[in-house]
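Reviewer comment 2.1 asked that we show a complete input and output for one of the modelled complexes. We chose the MGD case, as it is the one discussed in the main text.
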Amino acid sequence: MEDPRPIPVVPDGSYRTACRACAHGSCGVIVHVRNGSVASIEGDPTDPVSHGYVCAKAIASAEMLRHPHRIRRPMIREGDSWREVPWEEAMDFVASRLLEIRDRYGPEAIAVATGTNRDFNQWIYGFASALGTPTVVNAANECYIPRVTLSRMLVGDLPVVDYEGNPGLVMVWGANPVESNPDEYVYSQLDGALRRGARLIVVDPRRTQLAARADIWLRIRPATDAALALGMAKVIVEEDLHDREFVERHSYCFDEFRAHLSGISHAWVEEVTRVARSDYARAAREYASVKPAALHWGVGVEQNVNAVYADYALLDLVALTGNLDVPGGNVMFDPPPVRPSDSLFPRLPAAQREKTPGREYRMAWEITRPPLYLIWNAMLTGRPYPVRAMLDFAANLLVTRPNSAKVQRALSSLDLLVVADFFMTPTARLAHVVLPAATWLEQDGIADYRKHHGYVSARRRLFRFGEARSDAEILLDLGRRMGLPGFKWTCVEEALDEALEPAGLRWREFLRLGRLRGSVRYRKYVERGFPTPSGRYEFSSGQLAEWGFQPLPAFREPPESPADPEVAREYPMILITGARRLPYMGSEGRQLEGLRRLHPYPEVEIHPDAAARIGVSDGDWVAIETRSGRIFQRARLNPWLDPQVASAEYGWWYPEIRGDASWRASNVNVLTDDSPPLDPLMGATNLRGLMCRIRRAEPGEIPRELLTGGVDGAGDPGI
Ligand SMILES: Nc1nc2c(c(=O)[nH]1)N[C@H]1C(S)=C(S)[C@@H](COP(=O)(O)OP(=O)(O)OC[C@H]3O[C@@H](n4cnc5c(=O)[nH]c(N)nc54)[C@H](O)[C@@H]3O)O[C@H]1N2
Ligand SMILES: Nc1nc2c(c(=O)[nH]1)N[C@H]1C(S)=C(S)[C@@H](COP(=O)(O)OP(=O)(O)OC[C@H]3O[C@@H](n4cnc5c(=O)[nH]c(N)nc54)[C@H](O)[C@@H]3O)O[C@H]1N2
Ligand code: SF4
Ligand SMILES: [Mo]
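Response of the prediction step:
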C-alpha cells in the first residue's frame, strides 16, 4: 500500500489552533509539528473557553491524520467495486448528474444532508438554498435545535451559562459535560465553577460522575423532564421564591402560568417523574435562592416527544428566578463581529420554501428542518415529491438516525448518493460517489462560527493528506460548476475574508489574532425587550397560540410508556439510547486504536437486580429488543439505576466487520423509530424513554468477530 503520510504545509514549530475532533468543543490547542509530523497536541491554557482542556479524541487526531484506511481520493462506484478518479472527473460527474436530476424533477429532488452542527455547515445549508431545495437532512430534530429555536422565539437567542460570571449554583439537567462537551461548553468551565465553590444540582436518570459530585441528584424517569420542571416551577411560585421584579416588569401572562401550575398536583409530578416531592422541592428552593444560578441543560431533555415543552418549562425556570441574561446566569451573548453565516449565501426562494414537507411540525417547518421520516418517505414513495439524489457531508446516517433499517432502504433507492467523509462508513458504502474530506488539522476556517457563546477562533491548515479537501472547498467547487447563485468566490479564503468584514480583518490577519468576541452585556431586555408579540418574556407564548398550539408547557406520556400495561408486558424496561462516552464522537473513532483500546465494545447499563433476573453478569453480551429490532451490547451493571431503566450506547458500528452486521449488530438506532407521534413542534423522536426488553445473548447470535475479540482497532477499510 502506498505511504499515506500526511504532508505538512507549515515548517516545524508550535501552532495555536482549534480542535474539532468532536465537532463540538473547539478547544484551543497547540499542535507541535516536528520532523514534518504531529509530535503532540496539547491544550492551550490561554483559551478563554477551554482553559487548557484537551481530551482523548484530540490526542487521537494524530492517528486519524495518517490512518491507512482514510479515503484518499475521490471514488466512483462501478458495480461492486470502486474506481479512484481525479477530482476533476468526480466533480464533473456529480455536477452533471445533479443538474440532470434538478432539471427533470426540480431542485427539491436533491436532498442535502449533514450531521451535528459542524463549522462548515453554512456551506451545506448555503448550497441547499442556492440550489433551491428545502429537502434538508440534519440532526435538528434529534439534537438541541428545539432549544435553540424556542429560545430565539422567546428570548432572542440561546441563553448559555455565563461561567465567567461565576454562578453560585449550576443545575446540570440532562447533560453530561464530563464525557461530552456539547456546543458552547467545555467541562473545564463547570469544573472551575465547582472548584470556586458553586453548588451543584444534577437531573439525570444515571448517576454520572458529575451526579456523584452533586449536592442534589434527582434521578428522573427518562423523558419526563417537562413534568419535573413544571413541578419545580410550582414549588417556586407556591413558596413565593420567584423574582418579583423580573416577573412584574418584564414578563407577560404570569397569572396564567400560576393557574396552569395550580392545575397540576405534586402527587402527579412524583408519580410521573419518580422523583420525591421533598427532593425536587429542595432543588427548586436552592435554585431559586442562590444568586446567580445557572442552568446547564443538554439533549437528555430534548430527545423525546416532549422536547419543545420541556425546553419551555426549563426556560421558564430561568426567567422565573431572574437568572436570565444576568452575570453568572444564562446569558444571550451578542455575536462576535463576523457576518452571520446565512448572510453569505442567497436565501431559499419563497416558492421552494413553501414546499418544505411537514408544515404541521410548525417550528421545524419555519426553519426548513422537516422531520426525517418525511424525507425517507419521499425517497421511497415519491410523495409529496420525488427525492432522487442526496449529497451527504459529514453524516453517518445509517448509524446516527432513528430507524436505521428504513434509512438504509431509503438511501439505497436513490439514483445518486454522494458522501464526503474520512472513512468508508456504512453510509459511504451505499454511495455512488465518495469524496475524501479533510480533518480539522487539514483546513483553514472560523471555529465556532455558528455558536452562541459569542466567540470565534481561527483554525489553521497544518497538513495535507492524500487528495482530501475541506468540505467548504468541495462545495465551493461544486457550486461554481453548477453555476449556483452566490458561489462567486474563487477560493475559500475569499469567503473567509468576507465573513470577517465587520471586524475589519482579513483571514490572514485573523489567523494572527486568533480570536474575536462580541461585547458582553447583560439584561439587554431592559432596553431591547423580548422578541415576542408582547415584547416581554411570555409565560404563555403568543406565537405558539397563533400557530394553534398549546401556549404553555405541558407534559404528555411518551408513545411507549411503562404506564401502558400492554406495552410494558412485552417490553418492560425503559431505554435511554445515546448517553455519550468520552472516547467517541457519535459514530466516529471506532477505527482509531488509541480510542478503541479505551473502550472496545458498546455497553448497556442495567441494574444488578434486572441482570440477576435474566441470569446476566457484568460484561456478558445481551440482546436488546424493541418493537423495531434487536441489537447486542455488553451488560455493565450499575446499582444506582432505577431497576426498570437501561442505558445503551449509540453510534456503534464495526469498521472491522464486512457486510450488514457491521452496522446492524450493535447500532442502537436499529431499535429506535422515526414515525409519529413525534414532538408536535419540532418532530423530535423518542431516543430517550422507549420501551425494550433485555435478555442474555446466545453465542450463535452474535457476530463471530465480536466474541473472539478479533477486533483489530485499525479495522477493515470496508471498500
Ligand atoms: N439513538 C440516538 N441517535 C442519535 C443521538 C442519540 O443520542 N441517540 N444523538 C443525535 C445527535 S444529538 C446528533 S447531533 C447526531 C449526530 O450524528 P452525526 O453527525 O451523523 O454523527 P457522527 O457519527 O459524529 O458524524 C458522521 C460522520 O461525519 C464524518 N465527519 C466528521 N467530521 C467531518 C467533516 O468535517 N467533514 C466530513 N465530510 N465528514 C466528517 C465522520 O467520519 C462520521 O462518519 O446523532 C443523533 N442520533
Ligand atoms: N464524547 C462525546 N462528546 C459529544 C458527543 C459524543 O457523541 N461523544 N456528541 C456531541 C453531541 S451531537 C451532542 S448533542 C452533545 C450532547 O451532550 P449532552 O447534551 O451533555 O448530552 P448526553 O451526553 O447525550 O446526555 C447527557 C445526560 O442525559 C442523561 N439523560 C438521558 N435521558 C434523560 C432524560 O430523559 N432526562 C434527563 N434529565 N437526562 C437524561 C444521560 O444519562 C446523560 O448523562 O455532546 C456532544 N459531545
Ligand atoms: S472536547 Fe472536542 S474539541 Fe475539545 S479537545 Fe476533545 S475532541 Fe477536541
Ligand atoms: Mo447533537
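Residues 7-66 form a domain with the Phosphorylase Kinase; domain 1 fold (CATH 3.30.200.210). We note this here for comparison with the apo prediction described in Section 3.2.
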